[in-house]
Structure formats: structure tokens, C-alpha cells
Specification:
The structure holds 2 protein chains of 2 kinds. By secondary structure, chain A is α+β, with helices and mostly antiparallel strands. In chain A, about 15% of the residues lie in helices and about 25% in strands. Chain A has 2 helices and 10 strands; from the N terminus they run ββαβαβββββββ. By secondary structure, chain B is mostly helical. Chain B has one domain. Classes of the chains: A alpha+beta, B mainly alpha.
């Protein structure tokens, strides 16, 4: 079979068929894991660089009220994409990951108050007990340009207790 | 030059090509192939990741709402990118595949520009778009699967 710029012979067709099947299988895998992609405190999902919702798919805010300790952050698939924001000064990677986001952490007595959201749309502040750690999640740094983040769908904020268990 | 003078000075053999000319010939021979394979790798990278982690890419889908539909669109986009990538790397119908890639990249550049304005990311994508445009031209491709 002739096509613009070359022919698709039997071998070519076989390769394309194999790629189509492989792509289909990968797609089935991706579909089955579609809920495990964004971190719990996902900040995006409304559109490229225009995320307006600060609610994660499962409900609650990006730094919602503690609802009991969850799994260890280190055991989550997005652990390798997490960058500590608090306590201490954020690393250069954390600063890059925070591009397009507004994350504010303040001491309040024995605990901290955290508010997070897309830049210009800070979310409501929520309190956490002392020892809590705040992480920004950024699955791909490649979508940051200057002060813009083109895809907030892979961004999130996670708060853990002192033992590294996710509280939100 | 008179005929008698030409007879006394036979034509000199062409001088061997210099390093610059040889490099140019090598580039003319292989550059389209290298460009094709590299563009294929770019498409493969994005296609694979859109397929295995579609939820990370849903933020790029313009206009459409509804999480299920958005994920399906990302999966379809990723599948198409993977197919284009395989065809591109294997050298199957390169010009047609490049033309489809041009349309896809043009859509990406346009939607990102409209939503966020020009930036370094978009200019980088425009470079990739330019590579795809170049591959729509008739070029001599090596390492192709033509049968």
C-alpha cells in the first residue's frame, strides 16, 4: 500500500499493528490507574494553566482539615515527585515545583496553618498540629515556564504528620 | 580559449571534496533520518506517558470537562502519538506521518498559546513543529521499513 512519503508493506503493517495493540494495552493500564495519578491534594484539572478548582477529586481542599493519619507518603506512587516546603527553606526543586502555585505556611501556636491554591487564587487556610510537614507535588517539571505552570493537573500539596503519614 | 590552447591544457580532475563539503554531504545523507528518529522519540515519550498516566495530562485538555471524557481523550491522544512515533522511527510513510504530527503539534502550540500566551515552552514546541514540517518534504530517508 502506497502512502504519502513511502509505502506500508506487510512488515510495516505488522509493526503498526503491534504498536496499536501495545498502545491499547498501555491505554487499558492507564485507564485502570487513572485515579492514582494525581496526589491527594491535587490542585489542577480544569485546563492548561487555568485550573480554578482547588478541590481534589476525592473531595476536601488542597490542604484540608486533618482527617486522621493516612498512609506513609514514602509509600505513595507520587513520593518521588514530592518536595518539602515546610519546615525549613524550600529547595530549588521545590521552588520550581511551586511555580504557578501559592502555598502559604504560618505558625499558629503549637501548630501550623496551611493555605494553597493556584497563583492568585489562594485556598482557605487549614490548621495542622505541630510537627506537620508540607510537601508540594509536581509530577513533571517540564510544564513550568517562567512563572506559569501549564498543567496544574499534576500538581498538589500534601501535609504529613511528624511520622511521614499523610494527613491531607 | 582557442581550440589549440584547450588541446594543450587537458581538463584537470576535480579536486577532492574538502572537510566542509564532506560534512555537508554526510548531513544531507543522514540528517533527515536523524531528525525523523528524534522526532519519533519525542512523540513516543509523550505518547507513552499519556497512556500510562493519563490523569497527569488531563490539565492540558482544553474546553472539555468531565473527568472520564478527559481521560479518554488523553488516552486517545497518547495512542495516536505512540502510533506516529513507531511509524516515524520505523520510517513508515514518513511524509504522511509527519503531516499528521504537524497538525497535532499545531493544535498543541495554538491551544497553549491561547491559554497562557507565548513562553519558552511554546517556543520549544514550535521548534519541534518546525522539525515535523521539514519532514513533510521529500527527503532521502535511510533505515526505513519500506516492505
Amino acid at each position: 500500500m502506497r502512502a504519502l512519503g513511502g509505502s506500508v508493506g506487510p512488515r510495516g503493517a505488522t509493526v503498526l499493528l503491534a504498536a496499536a495493540v501495545a498502545g491499547g494495552l498501555l491505554g487499558v493500564h492507564g485507564w485502570s490507574t487513572r485515579q492514582s495519578g494525581p496526589p491527594p491534594g491535587a490542585l489542577g484539572g480544569a485546563g492548561a494553566g487555568s485550573a480554578t478548582s482547588t478541590s481534589p477529586p476525592g473531595g476536601g481542599g488542597p490542604a484540608g482539615r486533618p482527617a486522621g493519619a493516612g498512609p506513609l507518603l514514602a509509600s505513595q506512587s507520587f513520593a518521588s515527585y514530592s518536595y518539602q516546603v515546610w519546615p525549613g527553606a524550600p529547595s530549588a526543586a521545590a521552588k520550581t515545583a511551586m511555580t504557578g502555585l501559592s502555598i502559604s505556611v504560618r505558625r499558629t501556636g503549637s501548630g501550623i496553618s496551611v493555605s494553597a491554591g493556584p497563583s492568585g487564587q489562594p485556598g482557605a487556610a487549614h490548621a495542622y498540629p505541630g510537627g506537620a510537614r508540607v510537601y508540594v507535588i509536581e509530577a513533571s517539571m517540564g510544564d513550568e515556564a517562567g512563572s506559569s505552570d501549564y498543567n496544574l493537573g499534576d500538581d498538589g500539596v500534601v501535609v504529613t504528620d511528624a511520622h511521614g503519614r499523610i494527613v491531607q | 580559449m582557442t581550440p589549440s590552447a584547450r588541446a594543450s591544457h587537458p581538463e584537470q580532475p576535480a579536486p577532492p571534496p574538502g572537510p566542509g563539503e564532506r560534512a555537508g554531504q554526510l548531513a544531507a545523507e543522514w540528517a533527515p533520518t536523524v531528525g525523523r528518529v528524534l522526532l519519533g522519540l519525542v512523540l513516543a515519550w509523550f505518547g507513552y506517558h499519556e497512556l500510562v498516566q493519563p490523569s497527569v495530562w488531563t490539565g492540558y485538555v482544553p474546553v472539555v470537562s468531565g473527568s472520564t471524557l478527559v481521560v479518554l481523550l488523553v488516552l486517545a491522544h497518547g495512542w495516536l502519538l505512540l502510533m506516529l512515533a513507531v511509524a516515524m522511527v520505523a520510517g513508515i510513510a514518513v511524509r504522511a506521518v509527519a503531516a499528521v504530527a504537524v497538525v497535532l503539534l499545531l493544535q498543541i502550540v495554538t491551544s497553549l498559546t491561547m491559554s497562557n500566551g507565548l513562553s519558552d515552552l511554546i517556543l520549544r514546541d514550535m521548534g519541534v513543529l518546525g522539525l515535523a514540517v521539514c519532514l513533510t518534504a521529500s527527503t532521502r530517508q535511510r533505515l526505513v521499513l519500506s516492505r
